[in-house]
Amino acid sequence: MTAHASKGLTGxxxxxxxxxxxxxxxxxxxxxxxxxRIEGLLTGEDVLAxxxxxxxxxxxxxxxxxxxxxxxxxxxGGFSEPANVLDMGNSGTSARLMTGLLASHAFTSFVxxxxxxxxxxxxxxxTPLSRMGASFTNRDxxxxxxxxxxxxxxxxxEYVLPMAxxxxxxxxxxxxxxxxxxxxxxEPHPTRDHTERMLRSFGGEVKVREIEGGGRAATxxxxxxxxxxxxxxxxxxxxxxxxAVAASIVPDSxxxxxxxxxxxxxxxxxxxxxxxxxxxxxxxxxEVGGEPVADIRVRSAPLxxxxxPPERAPTMIDEYPILAVAAACGRGPTxxxxxxxxxxxxxxxxxxxxxxxxxxxxQIRATADEMxxxxxxxxxxxxxxxxxxxxxxxxxxxxxxxxxxRTAVTIDDASPIDTSFPxxxxxxxxxxxxxxxx
Length: 438
Ligand code: S3P
Fold this sequence. Notes:
This protein is an alpha/beta fold. The chain contains 12 helices and 24 strands. The chain has helices at 19-31, 45-56, 92-103, 123-131, 166-177, 194-201, 237-249, 268-275, 320-329, 349-359, 392-403, 424-430, and strands at residues 2-4, 10-14, 35-39, 60-63, 69-72, 86-87, 108-112, 135-139, 143-149, 158-160, 182-187, 206-211, 215-221, 230-232, 254-261, 279-288, 291-299, 307-308, 333-337, 364-367, 370-374, 385-386, 409-411, 434-436. Strands 22-23-1-24 form a 4-stranded mixed β-sheet. A 4-stranded mixed β-sheet has the order 2-15-17-16. α1 (19-31) packs parallel to α2 (45-56), α7 runs parallel beside α11 and α9 (320-329) packs parallel to α11. The radius of gyration is 21 Å and the shape is globular. Residues 20, 92-93, 165-167, 170, 192, 317-318, 341 line the site of shikimate-3-phosphate.
């Protein structure tokens, strides 16, 4: 697909359902007794992979004609041995959270994924879940495919997260639901808390304690009585980010992105864009499904390079590629600190961003956990072909770069976009973006 320099983007778009919350809505629906109805579920491939895995474990998961989803749960501890390998596709959230669920069910499952997911680290869940009593047979380096044998007699643990990861936290808390006693995860740097929020809304007990130095401890009690719920999934701030940056950097743009989830542990990009001088106006603030939401009006504005502090990283961990694109159009350098976790995403995002920006004539330097982008103070040269490495956010970020560049930008593979934002091209075109399939 190729993105050409576009005239101002205008109009309204509705952010697609939040990916993180969609996975959890299906999982808690499957763990609850009775029926769960879900409105606004993201129908990207990642979430469909979670749905298929839950079906293979015995839950009923179906899309209804009106676009809502129905899940008939089996109750905590009620999963049964899947008859085939669980293929999580491209989805790290499916692989890690489902592994947590499997760890406290006494049968063996086989988990795999696509080439990207098979290269990503699973040791980070294997270590704590082994302590709870699960056993694993995996490829070298803690990679998929792996066999997970859940424990018959799981043990509650208290675990200090060695890296800021909501997936690892959630895997342990989900394992803790079918485990006696209290399971606690201590996070030195708080990450997205959708698991904790949704567990509460299904009737589970979660204690959250602030700890010294800004960290948090989350504790769940085993064997909760979860009941089916009506869930409304808010829009995804990580998907909305592409349109927000596009409207900021394509001159003469004026758009409204409706239904953007603004959980404080997800909204770091919007804070950062405002610090850079972006013109964002939050309208119609409200709550959807227990999460803060707003419509965001975005008008193009000159952006200034800034320093993004490391403590902000967990609140915008998926947004650095699109932030790097915004920075490429700004004035002066933008320094992004404490971003080492980017190297463990769908691709090594530091390497992917460096290669992509260099291919488009933008100066960038990187170390193990920092990137510095030299802004072009307006339209970057563009003209490159960018390799997306099965990474949806790299694909969408560089298409956005092309909309604001002097010469068109091509990505080698647009298919990964379907994992999180199947309507991306159609929605961007409706705003005036020149995206041409190739
Ligand atoms: C997610 C957590 C983050 C994020 C991912 C979704 C989640 O991953 O990058 O897109 O839903 O819990 P990590 O836990 O690896 O930081």
